[in-house]
Amino acid sequence: MTSKPAGPPDGGWGWVVAAAAFAVNGLSYGLLRSLGLALPDLAEHFDRSTQDTAWVSALALAVQQAASPVGSALSTRWGARPVVMVGGVLTSLGFVFSAFARSLLHLYLGLGVLAGSGWALVFAPALGTLSRYFSRRRVLAVGLALTGNGASSLLLAPTLQLLLDTFGWRGALLVLGAITLHLAPCGALLRPLVLPGDPPAPPRGPLAALGLGLFARRAFSVFALGTALVGGGYFVPYVHLAPHALDQGLGGYGAALVVAVAAVGDAGARLISGWLADQGWVPLSRLLLVFGALTGLGVLAVGLAPLAGSQEGCRGALLAAAGAYGLSAGSYAPLVFGVLPGLVGVGGVVQATGLVMMLMSLGGLLGPPLSGFLRDETGDFTASFLACGSFILSGSFIYMGLPGALPSCPPASPSPQATPPPERGELLPVLPVALLSSSGGPPSTLDTTC
Amino acid sequence: MRAPSGLLGPRGLLPLALLCLLAAARGSLADGQPTVSPLTSVPIEEERITKYSNLSLESHNIPPTVSPLTSVPIEEERITKYSNLSLESHNIPPTVSPLTSVPIEEERITKYSNLSLESHNIPPTASPLTSLPIRREMMTKYSNLSLESHNISLTEHSNVPVEKNITLERPSNIELTCQITISRGVNSVNVTWKKGDELLENYLTNATGCILYAQYMFTIINSKQMGSYSCFFGGEKEQRGTFNFKVPEIHGKNKPLITYVGDSTVLMCKCQHCSPLHWTWYHSNGSVQVPIDVQMSEKYAINRTNANETRLKIMQLTEDNQGSYWCHAVFQLGESEERVQLVVLSYLVPLKPFLGIVVEVAILVAVILLCETYTQKKKKHIDDGKEFEQVEQLKSDDTNGVENNAPRHRKNESVSH
């Protein structure tokens, strides 16, 4: 019995997939963030500087993001489920291998390359599959999945500390290898879904699978450029917010409070923005622009907080700025993934997710070292935060080129009620037929350029 | 001779009188014999000869003649010679007037480096019935030692004794000053200095306005002189200030170091701003500390990159190597130690939770996949059943005629999804 595939279920098994994506996010990004706890022990054991051991996390993050397109390419060819399960096993092997490391090089290879590649295979397919399971509540579901990051930091950080105190770093890495193996059951939960708009046959050849053809679309290219610029500044507060607070004389607990305010704001905002975006009151690309700009302003505020003057005033200003940054950055995150189906259609979401991760990784590689360099040159973080804020603002400025971002033209349909979020590439401009057949993407149906 | 700067007006006549005495005394600096007067209960004279390296040093004390009714030692004389200098210090013993209760004079001549400096104190004769301490002048300097000055301020009616901790690593000259603000009756306050329980002598007191200063100067050369020095101010309520002298503390790692069999590890001890003469390491598996012999085996290596830290590297760890390791820092003025704990585990220890979790994950995956195939089979079975029904319905509809086309379409649509 062949049935015409229906639209995204928007519920049902979709919530299970959301939970699986939540766990995937927690076991990849959340674990990577908490890994910093083990770095001092590693530095002490191998008698290397903090900077050398910091490369372990940086390398893992870089490999994870840069190799994301490979993960999405493999999952378009074979489906998300086997790819994520293999990725989970690969990550686990990376941790087990690094538990027996005899030198820092083994750690770079085990944690950085192996585990990073495993993570690259899990994140984009999981999030892409989630986007396919929802339409009306897509951004909320994505926001929910992205909170896994913060929740896992809360849970994994004390657990990791306990493991380090009980088993030392070797035993801790070994047990972490077993914990990351939970990515495999998460992958098992990603049931394949057949949707209208999927390409009829799997793409031929690795390059087509990577989805590089997506760049041919103007909307996606604009989005890609803007996101790459935003990526340059987006990750810096993750790394440098605490040292900035310490530099301003806040003390250990004061700095921890600033980071906590940003983290809580971030997690809460992801859910709220997801819900808000799904209501459809404002086009997603406009929300992306607004929250991107607000994030940039938040980062600028964090950098300028020391100008508040007195110690008390500075502390209050820094807390407020951190809260503003957290709220806006959290609102921005699910929108990045939520807007993709509108740009490339549901069929290309998985590939687009991988490409977006790779672009953000470029920024993630450049941003923190630039920020650190500026801090070393000028003596405090004000210049670095100003630079990052300007990166984010320029990226948001580029988002103005996205269709639907600027409210300059009257709506195409005179209907006053909220329109469902675009999912078949309605935001795409009309493309010549030849270009369509070469890229192999889904056909566009509407023209919204004005 | 230079007149000392502290010579006050009314006593200006004394220098002339005592100058003659001085000239006479200069000629003969032989050892004097102590004469102990009755009614004294404390030792009254000392003599010290200290020799440094290749220098000769002579120190002479002319013992005081103690007047009756005094209860404290009243004078000493020290002559100290340092390095290649000759240093002469003369004390003209005071003639102590009766009814004084405080020491009243000393004189010292100190010479420094390649300068000759003579300093003479012509001590005043204390007037009777004065209870004000009379200022003395003291100059003792070791040319190659530094001077450390420490102050404590006390208030008259506080309940809390004030303490100051001082970290000392090299022999130094020390100058301790206690000051107390007295509302009234500065004269009635009795000043004493003690080291531990032992009474000290040779301190200075001074009063300006409502503040009373007590000063004690001495030299710390070895560990016996370290400890607690206290100044006491008598009065309605005794106030005390304490200076605690300690060698620098060293810091290791607070948490135990966890390693595995076959690893090599580095144990480190360091101190903030100190440079000990040398470091030693001990290993204790219980209560006895066994020194670690570095030359003995290739297992241990001691690395000393900076003066203020030491690293013990242990290769090829075995479970015997676990326990407490002690690092000792030896200073000229004492020793300081710290403990570092080492735990050596075998790989089987974390393997158990690892295997447990892997088994749990395998079970989870199996359950998820089985559930899915089960529900799919069930759905397929239901679908098959519905399809069978559908086929049956079609067959029956066919026999019924064409007018049943519409319901058939509707049924088909409801089945497909």
UniProtKB/TrEMBL annotation, chain A:
A GO molecular function held by the record: monocarboxylic acid transmembrane transporter activity
Membrane topology: Multi-pass membrane protein
Described function: Proton-linked monocarboxylate transporter. It catalyzes the transport of pyruvate across the plasma membrane. Probably involved in hepatic lipid metabolism: overexpression results in an increase of triacylglycerol(TAG) levels, small increases in intracellular diacylglycerols and decreases in lysophosphatidylcholine, cholesterol ester and sphingomyelin lipids.
Pfam families (UniProt xref): MFS_1 (PF07690)
Family classification: Belongs to the major facilitator superfamily. Monocarboxylate porter (TC 2.A.1.13) family.
Transmembrane helix found in the keyword field: yes
Oligomeric form and interacting partners: Interacts with isoform 2 of BSG.
Transmembrane portions of the chain: 12-32, 83-101, 107-127, 139-160, 172-195, 207-230, 250-272, 284-305, 317-337, 344-366, 381-402
PANTHER family, per the entry: MONOCARBOXYLATE TRANSPORTER, MONOCARBOXYLATE TRANSPORTER 11
Gene that produces this protein: SLC16A11
Keyword Lipid metabolism applies: yes
Keywords: Cell membrane, Endoplasmic reticulum, Lipid metabolism, Membrane, Symport, Transmembrane, Transmembrane helix, Transport
Official protein name in the record: Monocarboxylate transporter 11
GO biological process: lipid metabolic process
Gene Ontology CC terms, in alphabetical order: endoplasmic reticulum membrane; plasma membrane
Major facilitator superfamily (MFS) profile domain sequence ranges: 14-413
Gene3D superfamilies registered for this protein in UniProt: MFS general substrate transporter like domains (1.20.1250.20)
Originating organism: Panthera pardus
Reaction(s) the record says it catalyses: pyruvate(out) + H(+)(out) = pyruvate(in) + H(+)(in)
Location(s) in or outside the cell: Cell membrane; Endoplasmic reticulum membrane
UniProtKB/TrEMBL annotation, chain B:
One record GO biological process: axon guidance
GO molecular function: cell-cell adhesion mediator activity
Region (Disordered): 390-417
Mode of membrane association: Single-pass type I membrane protein
Signal sequence bounds: 1-30
A GO CC term attached to the entry: axon
InterPro entries according to UniProt: Ig-like_dom (IPR007110), Ig-like_dom_sf (IPR036179), Ig-like_fold (IPR013783), Ig_I-set (IPR013098), Ig_sub (IPR003599)
Pfam families reported in the protein's UniProt record: I-set
Keywords linked to the UniProt accession: Cell membrane, Disulfide bond, Glycoprotein, Immunoglobulin domain, Membrane, Phosphoprotein, Repeat, Signal, Synapse, Transmembrane, Transmembrane helix
Compartments it resides in: Cell membrane; Synapse
Gene3D superfamilies attached to this UniProt entry: Immunoglobulins (2.60.40.10)
Residue intervals of the Ig-like domain: 161-231, 248-343
SMART domains: IG (SM00409)
Transmembrane segments: 354-371
Subunit structure: Interacts with SLC16A1, SLC16A6 and SLC16A7.
Protein name in the entry: Embigin
